[in-house]
Specification:
Elements (H helix, E strand, L loop, with lengths): L1 H27 L4 H9 L3 H24 L2 E7 H10 L1 H4 L8 E9 L2 E9 L4 E14 L2 E11 L2 E2 L2 H14 L4 E6 L2 E7 L8 E9 L2 E8 L7 H4 L3 H8 L2
Antiparallel strand pairs: 1-10, 2-3, 3-4, 4-5, 5-6, 5-8, 7-8, 9-10
Length: 241
Amino acid sequence: MKRSHALIGGCLVVLLLTAVAAATGWSFHQVPRFYQDALDQQADPEKRQQQAQHLEQRTLRLVDDIYHADEWSQEFTASQINSWLAEELPQHRAHWLPIGVSEPRLHFTEDTIHLAFHYRDEYWDAVISVQLKPDIETTDCLAVEFASARAGGIPLPMDDVLAEMSRMLTESGCLHVWTQRDGNQVILVDLGQFGFQQPVLESLQVSPGSLYVAGRRLNFGDITLAELFLGQSEREALSGR
């Protein structure tokens, strides 16, 4: 009788482990709805090319205004960005993507950017999704809060995600600082390092379907990232640019 009970117990444990493994595997291979929708919406090559061209035109206009205008603003739609990611990125800018990453897409909801991409290596084959909340920290600083990261439906350790992000930014020479907000990690990126004439980012609005940015030239007395967060050596490095 004891042997029968042990056998039954063993079978139940095996069944439980099998169910957990199956559920984990199913969750791991889940695809966010917005990501699948974005892939499906890019099926028309002609429309995709037009949207990608609109994004490039708006981006060039924004850069020109940042260099030459006292004030500037521009709005980008998720459709335009995803069309560019589908059309131009793999053909002409594939070297911008980290190894293993393909088909990145964006989705905008209120105050939040949802980013997802397909990641594949010898161990992984899943859609990674990240929730980002951008904000303006100082006149020359963009703050991006990392709210969550998932592989399929399974939460990813944020430490690993942030370590990889920091490594990539450091290798690219991008000046950044990490801090915390409401328990989440936040990256602060110095906008003055990109060669513009000290832009001041005054408005950054993420709305369903679109992203709006606006700003102006730097005025005397504006608080900068260097003054707020960086140490003396970093300040000297920034002032010497």
